[in-house]
Design brief:
The structure is a single chain. The protein is of the alpha/beta class. The chain folds into three domains: 4-29 and 411-442, no CATH class; 47-94, no CATH class; 100-409, TIM Barrel (Alpha-Beta Barrel), CATH 3.20.20. Helices cover 46% and strands 12% of the residues. It is built from 19 helices and 20 strands. The chain has a five-stranded parallel beta sheet. Strands 1-7-18-17 form a four-stranded mixed beta sheet. The protein is globular and about 80 Å long. Residues 1-20 have low confidence and may be disordered.
Length: 515
């Protein structure tokens, strides 16, 4: 005879599944910041060391514009052409930087409020390859792969932001790559998009494309839906001149910017975790000083993203505990100054959706999230130490990110949540909670349920084909790519873009009628 408790619980679960998700268990901007791997004394040492490096060593290879602006603000150039940043200038920059702003979606429901320790999950990377969705084999990435990644992200509720994840290696030159990268990302999702731009001249075309989509330059400046990511330094402690020119041009065009330092511990930054962190923080602060001298109202994201090498081989390794704690420390420094902060996490060394993949990715993303990084890039899809992306992994990672966000949300101990009156009522009554209204009301608001993760009993799983999570994720990714062609950019706008720019994705490829 069926257990009435089990039967009642199943009925309640079925009824709940049919209800709209008015009170989701996780959401964009869950507040983190409780995990602090650095003690207060260590934070002070990192700060002092970074300020000291900027003041006494500075950075080489500064552009003429940067030299003019920084020296006018109190900096100076040494005899060996290193640009020094006095600590009072750095402190003033930190004190006056914008601390909250919106990373806008093309549609308002995807707006991300960047403030405090609000956590958002993102794709990311510039992988040269993908793991083919049909064969699983590694191959060169294409513009179609980038568009497909954006389309899948558009349907993943726990991936809040789309950062360009693969390089379109089928395009002939930087100009074609930059404009088509922007187009593919913006056409593939209405969520906020971040890309890099290779040359200053190409910023103008990308800006023109964004202005046309927004309905004009004024409209875009009011609600910018694309961030330009800039690696403004070539570690150790050198500016990348062309990237700095891209940075200045992008700021003047109205783009939010992400200021990235990505040294590699043991190669282009010190081998120690603390040394690598200090150098990355100093390099990123130098970029922030320059960005605010270009425009004091710039939407700038502090993004020290130091990486780790396997010192036995010199090759990059993103899956170890060293990378995880380094990113948490970088996030903590951002929280120390209350700056909008991005961390890189989730760059597993695994080449497939296996145990290594899950353990490495979950470790790094969880630590960055609990440390309060506002935007965690590479959190979905990326594998093979930044060399490859898996479209199926976006789907599997969506579940992982939901679970991580649920841990960031925390226990929430309140009198209502503790529910002592419910406990008393159950103990004096039926002796279980499955039939309680309290359980029914909280089962969706408090619990995250995976989309492809399997929670069936072993026998049921075997009867259903014994599919792995990778199998389920691959099937879901294929379903999305067969059916989901976002239409937030209308046909007239698309045709206008094609008339002005060399767009390489055909109308058929984006699910529109040809002509």
């Amino acid at each position: 005879m069926p257990n009435p408790v089990t039967r009642r619980g199943r009925k309640n679960r079925a009824n709940a599944a049919a209800q709209p998700d008015a009170n989701p268990p996780v959401w964009p901007g869950v507040v983190g910041g409780r995990f602090k791997p650095l003690s207060d004394d260590e934070v002070a040492l990192v700060e002092e060391a970074a300020f000291g490096l900027l003041e006494t060593l500075g950075l080489s290879q500064a552009t003429e514009s940067m030299v003019d602006k920084v020296t006018a603000a109190g900096g100076r150039v040494t005899d060996d052409r290193r640009l020094l940043f006095p600590r009072n200038l750095v402190r003033k920059t930190i004190a006056n930087a914008r601390r909250d702003f919106t990373l806008c979606g093309q549609t308002p429901e995807h707006d991300l409020q960047i403030e405090g320790a609000r956590v958002h999950m993102s794709t990311g990377g510039a992988a040269p390859g993908v793991f083919d969705l049909d064969t699983g084999a590694y191959r060169d990435s294409s513009l179609q792969d980038l568009y497909d990644a954006a389309r899948i992200t558009d349907r993943m509720e726990n991936i809040h932001h789309f950062s360009r994840s693969v390089v379109a290696r089928d395009l002939p030159d930087n100009a074609a790559m930059d404009i088509n990268t922007a187009y593919a990302c913006l056409m593939g999702t209405s969520k906020h998009v971040s890309i890099s731009i290779t040359e200053p001249a190409n910023v103008v075309d990308v800006a023109a494309l964004c202005y046309r989509i927004a309905g004009g330059e004024t409209a875009f400046r009011a609600r910018p839906f694309l961030t330009v990511m800039v690696c403004h330094v070539v570690p150790p402690m050198r500016f990348a001149k062309e990237a700095c020119d891209v940075l200045e041009t992008a700021i003047r065009a109205g783009f939010p910017v992400q200021l990235i330092s990505a040294g590699q511990a043991g190669a282009t930054s010190p081998a120690t975790i603390a040394g690598s962190l200090v150098q990355a923080v100093a390099e990123t602060l130098a970029g922030l000083v320059f960005a605010r001298l270009v425009d004091p109202e710039v939407r700038a994201i502090f993004a020290p993203k130091p990486l780790v090498a396997d010192l036995r081989t010199g090759s990059m390794c993103g899956g170890g505990g060293e990378q995880a704690i380094l990113m948490a420390g970088a996030a903590q420094m951002g929280r120390h100054w209350n700056l909008p902060t991005s961390s890189i996490a989730g760059i597993t060394d695994a080449k497939t959706l296996d145990a290594q993949y899950g353990s490495e990715k979950a470790l790094a993303v969880a630590m960055a999230a609990h440390a309060g990084a506002n935007l965690i890039t590479q959190a979905a899809g990326m594998m093979s130490s930044l060399l490859g992306v898996s479209h199926a992994a976006y789907v599997a990672d969506n579940d992982m990110l939901g679970n991580i966000l649920r841990t960031v949300r925390g226990v929430e101990a309140t009198p209502q949540n503790i529910a002592a009156d419910v406990i008393a009522g159950v103990c004096r009554g039926e002796g279980h909670y499955l039939g309680q209204q309290h359980t029914f009301e909280r089962m969706k608001a408090d619990y995250f349920y995976p989309n492809v993760g399997d929670r069936r009993a072993p026998g049921d799983w075997e009867a259903g084909g014994a599919h792995t999570v990778g199998d389920a994720a691959r099937d879901r990714a294929k379903e999305i790519l067969a059916n989901h062609f976002p239409a937030h950019i209308d046909d007239d706008t698309d045709r206008a873009l094609r008339a002005r720019f060399d767009i390489r994705l055909s109308r058929n490829q984006i699910g529109r009628a040809s002509g």
